[in-house]
Amino acid sequence: MRVHIGRIKGEKGASLDFEFHESLPSPLTEERPQTVPVDVNGSVMNTSPGYLVHGRVQAEVPLRCDRCLNDYIESVD
Question: What is the pLDDT along the chain (77 residues), one digit of tens a residue?
């Protein structure tokens, strides 16, 4: 995931919103590989001399309980 900041590069105070929808590997065991949809959104502001990034990552991650070995879904934000 990359945010291209060319539009705000020379303008102090300019900002750019971004949004990504990706599928990443699940943290479950290798025996049951699957992907998890991940949503990322946020903004980048040119603060000159740097950039300030605010964002949010959300996913529904399938996990396995270490105690009972049951699978469950955990919301990650």
Answer: 788 999 999 899 999 999 999 888 776 655 666 788 899 999 999 999 899 999 999 998 888 888 998 988 889 89
Q: Return d(Cα 29, Cα 56) in angstroms, integer.
A: 26
Largest CA distance in the chain: 55
Question: How is the chain classified by DSSP, letter by letter?
Answer: -----GGGTT-TT-EEEEEEEEEEE-SS-TTS--EEEEEEEEEEEE-SSSEEEEEEEEEEEEEE-TTT--EEEEEE-
